[in-house]
Design brief:
The protein is an all-beta fold. It has a domain of 320 residues: TolB, C-terminal domain (Neuraminidase), CATH 2.120.10. Helix content is 3%, strand content 48%. A 5-stranded mixed sheet has the order 29-30-31-32-59, with no helix packed on it. Strands 45, 46, 47, 48 and 49 form a 5-stranded antiparallel sheet that branches. Strands 50, 51, 52, 53 and 54 form a 5-stranded antiparallel sheet that branches. Strand 30 and strand 31 form a beta hairpin. The longest helix is centred in the N-terminal third of the chain and has 19 residues. It starts with a helix and ends in a 14-residue tail after the last strand.
């Protein structure tokens, strides 16, 4: 009867959440949707990951007995398991480019390092049912070998060699491991015992992945190309469950071994399904969604939790299916985000990226003259390099997305100006009539100038020698020089022609540092840039150098530990001068999150900085310099706000997606 009591508690909590605005509402300090759910062994908690476009993926815990979700990690992590006593979630994270594993207490958030014996490049692990052993994939050249050890690091042993293992699963008695290995052709599923010196035995030859043991250890399920396949533990009695398509994502057996839950694709509609492994009968849990995956049964088999996004969702959410009643409940809510505001040259329009305009898809958007709404201009792939700039005296702006350079008009329409072989960077002259960009030909970059009206082109700097790449170009305010980055150096070159000069040279000690986009001061006297150093620990530096190269200063330097966001890196666009050159704003990491700082600018340079806003990024000044627009990153979503340089309060830009006369959301335009 214990499961009935627990189910009642869970149902009551879910009903309260839906009516009172608990987990199903966009709480100010809650997660933004959720994905990859994992039940704790006692069935009382669910670990999952959540992120906003500009924040890293972090691990959260949801109690099935009530209460708000709790954030367990801050610097970027994903869940990989639970401790045997259900008190700690096991998390994998990347810090300073190194993989590490931690056990995080689900109640206090305290973490302790685990699996410290693993090398820094191990990211995939699987714990035995009793949590005393761990299997892991050790990279070796272009392959991954299967190893296992006790969680203390003792008794390490290699179980495969030269098979390029992709995924693995422990048998429920903890004595064997099933894994799949190989490329698109010649894939094979193997079983190997961890004791003795046994070699892997092939149990399924053919395209298959994500093998999963049945609870009694007698069968193995494999995701095939067109069907789920079940084989016995020794490879015999192969049985195909004829399902048209199965997504190549995680499978999960019900605890009684009767059902398999999986991601299904039927007539191009994605959903979660369960199949009775004896009768072959399929039960659709959800269908017709944008995405779905990672189903996971509760330990008592009464509930199924999974991730999914409906057509109108802003991102992936967690859903719970009560098996007995076939009742589905939404556990989390994904909120729309808007970020990275950049002003047009006349200061009347704000360009931003938002997923609030069309079923969660990201769009480049432009605010309307009414200042209360915005319209979608064109689809944006936020995983590709993105740059937007609109010179103050120009009637047009430039948008770089991947290897495309597009021109933005005041109407919001865009036109393709240049396509290059590789992702590029570009900038418009102050008057908007000449485009400077990194031109790629036969895998070699050069710095080119393109006359917009005449559509003629000249090569300002020819292709350099191997290993040198021109990138990150920026026009001076007077339009006479162009700053660029080459091999970690900040350089400039006259537009009229001539040899480039080096303004900042890092030297050999930290030549591996990455220099981000240089930004000229409005009077052309200074160039600011952000720089990520990796020698002696990763740090983000904010530096300025005079345009004649005679003076340089370090404005700020701090540890840089957080991973980038799932789509964007809020600290990659760090520096902004006020139009009157009296203020300098920049982003820096503070306590594991981006923060916004402000410093006065005088005749002798930049003065002492002060913290302006926590959890903030993307500074962009209004045309008159009276206020600074920035992106607030807190509260599970991104919003754009305004703050005066010397004021104490800020205000949100309450922009909403504009609607057409027919009452529909604005559709993207692209020429």
């Amino acid at each position: 009867m214990k499961w009935i009591y627990r189910a009642g508690l869970l149902a009551a909590w879910l009903a309260l959440s839906l009516t009172a605005g608990g987990a199903a509402s966009a709480a100010s300090n809650g997660p933004n949707g959720g994905s990859r759910p994992l039940w704790s062994p006692d069935g009382k908690r669910i670990a999952f990951q959540s992120a906003t476009p500009n924040s890293p993926v972090n691990v959260w815990a949801l109690s099935t007995t009530g209460g708000a979700p709790r954030q367990l990690t801050r610097l970027g992590a994903r869940p990989v398991g639970w401790s045997a006593d259900s008190r700690s979630a096991y998390c994998q994270t990347m810090r300073d480019g190194r993989s590490a594993f931690y056990a995080v207490d689900a109640m206090t958030g305290r973490e302790r390092a685990i699996l410290s014996f693993l090398s820094k490049d191990v990211t995939e692990v699987a714990f035995s049912p009793d949590r005393k052993l761990v299997a892991y994939l050790q990279p070796r050249k272009d392959e991954r070998d299967l190893w296992f050890a006790r969680t203390s690091g003792a008794d390490r042993r290699q179980l495969s060699e030269g098979l390029n293992v992709r995924s693995m699963d422990w048998s429920h008695d903890g004595k064997k491991i099933v894994f799949d290995a190989g490329g698109v052709v010649g894939e094979t599923t193997y079983v190997v015992a961890i004791s003795g010196k046994s070699k892997p035995k092939a149990v399924f030859k053919g395209i298959g992945s994500y093998p999963s043991w049945s609870p009694d250890g007698s069968r193995i399920a494999v995701v095939g190309m067109h069907a789920l396949t079940i084989v016995s533990k020794d490879g015999g009695n192969t049985r195909r469950l004829h399902i048209s398509q199965v997504d190549r994502h995680a499978l999960d057996w019900s605890p009684n071994g009767v059902y398999l839950a999986y991601t299904s694709v039927e007539k191009d509609l994605i959903g979660i399904s369960m199949v009775n492994v004896t009768s072959g009968k399929v039960i659709r849990v959800s269908s017709g969604w944008t995405s779905a995956g990672f189903p996971h049964w509760s330990p008592d088999g009464r509930f199924l939790v999974f991730e999914g996004a409906k057509k109108d969702d802003f991102g992936s959410n967690l859903y719970l299916l009560e098996i007995h009643r076939q009742r589905r409940v939404q556990l989390t809510t994904a909120s729309a985000s808007s970020w990275g505001g950049k002003w047009s040259g006349d200061g009347r329009s704000l360009f931003l990226i938002s997923n609030a305009t069309g079923g969660g898809a990201f769009q480049l958007c432009r605010s309307n003259p009414d200042g209360r709404s915005f319209r979608a201009l064109m689809p944006i792939d936020p995983t590709r390099p993105l740059q937007l700039h609109w010179p103050r005296r120009s009637k047009r702006g430039v948008l770089v997305t991947g290897n495309e350079v597009r021109l933005l008009e005041p109407s919001g329409n865009s036109s393709l100006a240049v396509t290059t072989e590789h992702p590029t960077w570009a900038d418009l002259s102050p008057t908007g009539d000449t485009l400077a960009y990194v031109k790629w030909q036969q895998h070699k970059p050069s710095l080119a100038l393109r006359d917009i009206s005449k559509k003629s082109e000249t090569e300002l700097l020819p292709s350099p020698e191997a290993g040198l790449a021109y990138s990150l170009v920026a026009w001076s305010p007077q339009g006479k020089e162009i700053a660029f980055v080459r091999n970690g150096q900040v350089c400039k070159v006259p537009v009229a022609g001539g040899s480039p000069s080096v303004l900042f040279n890092p030297g050999k000690a930290d030549a591996g540092a990455v220099v981000l986009l240089p930004v000229w001061s409005p009077d052309g006297k200074w160039i600011a840039f952000a720089r990520v150093r990796r020698d002696g620990g990763q740090r983000l530096e904010i530096r300025v150098v005079s345009s004649d190269g005679q003076r340089a200063a370090m404005i700020a330097s701090a540890p840089f530990n957080t991973e980038g966001g799932i789509y964007a890196d809020p600290l990659a666009d760090s520096c902004a001068w006020s139009p009157d050159a009296k203020w300098f704003a920049y982003g820096q990491e503070l306590e594991g999150r981006p923060a916004l700082y402000l410093a006065p600018v005088g005749k002798s340079g930049i003065g002492r900085s002060r913290l302006r806003r926590r959890s903030a990024a993307y500074p962009a000044w209004l045309r008159d310099g009276a206020a600074l627009a920035y992106t607030a990153l807190g509260g599970g979503q991104e919003t754009i706000r305004l703050v005066a340089p010397s004021g104490s309060k800020d205000r949100p830009l309450r922009l909403r997606p504009a609607k057409s006369p027919a009452g529909k959301k604005g559709s993207p335009r692209r020429k």
